[in-house]
Write a structure and sequence with these properties.
This protein is an alpha+beta fold. The chain has three domains: about 55 residues, no CATH class; about 120 residues, Beta Barrel (Elongation Factor Tu (Ef-tu), domain 3), CATH 2.40.30.170; about 160 residues, Helix Hairpins (Orthogonal Bundle), CATH 1.10.287.620. The protein contains seven helices and twelve strands. Strands 1-8-11-10-9-12 form a six-stranded antiparallel barrel. Strands 5-4-2-7 form a four-stranded antiparallel beta sheet, with no helix packed on it. Helix 3 crosses helix 4, helix 5 packs antiparallel against helix 7 and helix 6 runs antiparallel to helix 7. The two termini are about 70 Å apart.
């Protein structure tokens, strides 16, 4: 008991001063246990090396578990209204591009197509009936203008001839009047000579007869000159009429041709309208068969036979499983070393498949900007939240397990910096 109490008593200052220092004790331990010392040093070096390697490894990539498989999902909807006659696929069925999915009743569309064909035939018949009218009208108007021109030329020629005849008649009248004046002078002279018995009575009678003949010729030429003047007036009226007809033909001819051409244009437009109607009816008839836009798997089928569908109504969807990618939502602080082209590894949570890929693109905005209610930092109390940016990872082709991927599956992504 005394020894125990003595051992439990605190050591005095002299005893503590007699204990060797730590350096001496360590040196003594190394001398006594050389192997343990080597092992300890090696363990420390290995631990440092492992720590450095782990630091290098964990800083060589960016990791996120906020990622999922994405793919194009093509909605299939009706383009026309109609009654569903058959649904040829079921949910989760694999289809190829162009495969028939839904059939609509074709009765109404077939009738509309036949009617469009008939309307096109009628429009084409009207066009063929109207087409010859333009050259006929053109030829007719050209003939009318040419005839009117000929009439004008003929009237001018007749007027010129009549004017020459009138001029000749006036000249003859002037000559006859001169002859009459001379004959009257001869009568006066012969009357005096007869009274003086200078000439026989016979010469006086001859002069008197000549004067009478000259007077008669004057009257005749005056009548002819008057008639020629009337003929000239008639020819002038004929020329005026010809000019009026020529002007009317020249003025109305283009309008008549334009009217015929307008009728032809209207007939051609009617044909084009009928062709468009036929094309529309042909399209509507083709829309009674709804085909798969892409190859993939059917989902969200919500149409049944006998149902009446409207244009734009969603019938089902086709998931394009042949073109899938990964959308990884990295924090904005992780984007410093991420760029397109970097290699990536993807682990699928469902099967723990390890897939390889590369960064294809980085989103144009954060995910919050595309949400239904994007945040407005300028209003209310501001709380800084680390945003996430979608990064598209394109998977390398020809890898086992790609055919099992489905949109929406969760994955973990690593993007290596080098």
């Amino acid at each position: 008991m005394e020894s125990e109490s003595a051992a439990s008593e605190p050591k005095t200052g002299d005893e503590r001063r007699k204990r060797p220092p730590l350096r001496v004790r360590a040196r003594s331990f190394v001398h006594r246990h050389p192997t343990s010392t080597v092992i300890l040093i090696a363990a420390v070096i290995i631990a440092i090396a492992v720590a450095v390697l782990l630091w290098i490894y964990f800083t060589s990539y960016e990791h996120t578990d906020d990622a999922e498989i994405d793919a194009h999902i093509a909605p299939v909807s009706a383009r026309i209204s109609g009654d569903v006659s058959a649904v040829l696929v079921e949910d989760n069925q694999t289809v190829r591009a162009g495969q028939a999915l839904v059939l609509l009743d074709v009765s109404d569309n077939q009738v509309a197509y036949s009617r469009a064909q008939a309307e096109l035939a009628r429009a084409e018949a009207q066009l063929e009936q109207t087409r010859p009218e333009v050259p006929i009208a053109t030829a007719s108007t050209e003939t009318s203008v040419s005839t009117a021109s000929d009439e004008v030329s003929s009237a001018r020629a007749d007027l010129a001839a009549s004017e020459r005849e009138a001029q000749a008649a006036r000249a003859r009248l002037a000559q006859a009047e001169a002859n009459e004046i001379r004959a009257k002078s001869d009568i006066e002279r012969y009357r005096y000579l007869v009274s003086q018995n200078a000439v026989p009575r016979q010469q006086y009678d001859a002069a008197l007869a000549a004067a009478r003949a000259a007077s008669a010729e004057v009257r005749s030429n005056r009548a002819l000159a008057k008639a020629a003047k009337q003929v000239v007036a008639q020819k002038e009226q004929r020329l005026d009429s010809a000019l009026a007809r020529h002007g009317e033909a020249t003025h109305n001819a283009p309008k008549q041709v334009d009217v015929r051409r307008a009728s032809l244009d209207a007939a051609q437009a009617a044909v084009r309208i009928a062709e468009a109607g036929l094309a529309r009816a042909r399209l509507d008839l083709s829309y009674t068969r709804i085909d798969a836009p892409v190859a993939g798997i059917i989902g969200q089928r919500n149409v049944e036979p006998g149902e009446h569908v409207a244009p734009g109504q969603s019938l089902l969807a086709v998931v394009d499983t042949g073109d899938v990618w990964v959308t990884a939502n990295f924090k904005e602080t992780q984007l410093r070393h991420i760029r397109p082209g970097l290699r990536a590894s993807v682990v699928v949570d469902a099967w723990h498949d390890h897939l390889k890929g590369h960064v294809e693109s980085i989103g144009g905005a954060t995910g919050a900007r595309f949400s239904l209610l994007p945040p407005e930092n300028a209003t209310g109390n501001f709380v800084k939240v680390v945003q996430r940016v979608p990064v598209r990872i394109r998977l390398d082709p020809n890898q086992p397990g790609l055919e099992r991927l489905r949109p929406g599956l969760s994955v973990e992504v690593k993007v290596y910096r080098k």
